[in-house]
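Note to self: keep these together.
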Amino acid sequence: MFDEFFFYYYYLDDKAPVTDTNIPSHLDQMLGILLQEEREREFGVTGPCMEYLLHHKILETLYTLGKADCPPGMRQQVLVFYTKLLGRIQQPLLPHINVHRPVQKLIRLCGEVLATPTENEEIQFLCIVCAKLKQNPYLVNFFLENKLKSLASKGTADVISEDTSKGQGQDSLSTDTGQSCQPEELSGATGLEHAELDDEPPHQLDDLSTSLDNLTVTSLPEATVIRPNQDYNLVNSLLNLTRSPDGRIAVKACEGLMLLVSLPEPAAARCLTQSTCLCELLTDRLASLYKALPQSVDPLDIETVEAINWGLDSYSHKEDASAFPGKRALISFLSWFDYCDQLIKEAQKTAAVALAKAVHERFFIGVMEPQLMQTSEMGILTSTALLHRIVRQVTSDVLLQEMVFFILGEQREPETLAEISRHPLRHRLIEHCDHISDEISIMTLRMFEHLLQKPNEHILYNLVLRNLQERNYTEYKPVCPEDKDVVENGLIAGAVDLEEDPLFTDISPDNTLSNQEWLSSSPPATPDHPKNDGKTEVHKIVNSFLCLVPDEAKSSYHVEGTGYDTYLRDAHRQFRDYCAICLRWEWPGSPKALEKCNLEATFFEGHFLKVLFDRMGRILDQPYDVNLQVTSVLSRLSLFPHPHIHEYLLDPYVNLASGCRSLFSVIVRVVGDLMVRIQRIQDFTPKLLLVRKRLLGLEPEGPIIDHITLLEGVIVLEEFCKELAAIAFVKYHASSTP
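Structure:
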């Protein structure tokens, strides 16, 4: 049968389309014979027909016919035959040199020219090869071609293929298709000579084949080194096809790349990142799509556009009731970022690191940083909204780490006031939390709030913890023998009872919890967890926060369902989530002993907390939305189960060193200012209650009320104190439960 096929070919009119011949049916018969032969034998036993195919290099001959596309349409038939053969034959074929060598050559032909009639067959063939490599990852080594070896083998008798003889003058540095990156090229080169960028049809922005016309590639400083002498043509062909005008082809090519990057073979991972243009494809397309976003896109639209999954971003402007200018471009950018994120998430470890670093250097620093550092308020707002969106979207730990280093830097030593601008972008973003534009402040605070929820230890350490490690915000007082135990009133030695403070003399019984109530709600004392374990009693802490706002400035007790207990459930759920995130960070269960702390060092709360405390100190003079965002970030910080954070943000009785401030002390100053200002406002309490009801939607909007900013600030302050009280109780309950 096989001899008959080739005898028939030599007497064939090479100008007649292959569909007018018996070649397709003969190929199907050949495949059928091979499949039947395999079914009739035990697994692993090679039959005579398969032996003939391998020994007589039938696949090599088919490749030659396919490359010449003679008769017309032959390439398509060859691709289909290869795909079916590899997909249906159960015994491993790729280890045979007379299989993987022609397969490798056929791979080079794929993606040579975009939008060809064989594009669908090409991607099907490439994907079946990828699937086979996924099943047996060691086989990938057959597809890593050594360029120097191919140079040394020129002119030998073993080189029999037509494309090799053609490449006598050029194969030393490239394949016969000219696809792969030349070793002397910079890493920014695409190496896709046969893809005519200027002649491509315009791509739709609603799929992964977004146009890369007129793309300017920026080389990295370290990219001037020569690439290793290896080719990974399977990757190069898939990279070509990711640029196909047909979105389905592009998505299949991306799926193939996803399979290849996940292969555990170190040599393949190294070749993938060092000898192909994969890093450039990811980053250059990100840059292209980012730059294609219109400057006028509304930041709110960036925030609220639906979640995007790569490959599923088909978008019809006519069918979208919530369309807005730039939505198609935004969806394309977010879709491609999601693909990069998922690719890095699935990639082999060293490949993932290399890909993430490329995104960091070529996209984050090269494209996003200049936008975030600009002075135009509209530009700042749009770029910060995009940063916020990708912070929310990223799921790969490796890419998240690079994003965190991009935003915050890698510094871990305590901050000093003189060096807060050491990492310019971090300094600029934190300054934007206190920007003259409330929109920029809110957007940047939201970005930091979501950043704090990411499972990366460096985020909290860089922003807050590195400045609290030595506990030099406290004033150390050696404990006298008679003060070792908690005194009768429940306070630790040296603490101040707020009930004796002039600010807290007007305490309503309705706003405190009796000892009996606390006995029923607090965890019982056990021999291993006694009630008086050296911590400030939790009911003292909770009451301290609940009593901070004076009665005449409270309005929640006039409205049903706004009590302190409403925060307990949310605090419990959020604290549980934060504990799950922080579990692998192995934080200590108790504060560092003061005797081991460097209390002589000057304390600086850090740039981030400084801006938040400054904002908190102006809560009575800031817009309602700004106050909500500031308190939201502070409550997020308070939820972290680190003993130093708990002490600094949630313990009113900590002995602060001279010149230091804590969250509680900042609120105390705000309350002191509030008590003075209340006296100047006529009908303060009725106005406060009306504002609360309007905010809750219980009262219709009416005439503007005097001092509206202050009244809204008082309401936020009261609610924030209740939230802090709930967090303190939940954290105490968790630490006291065996």
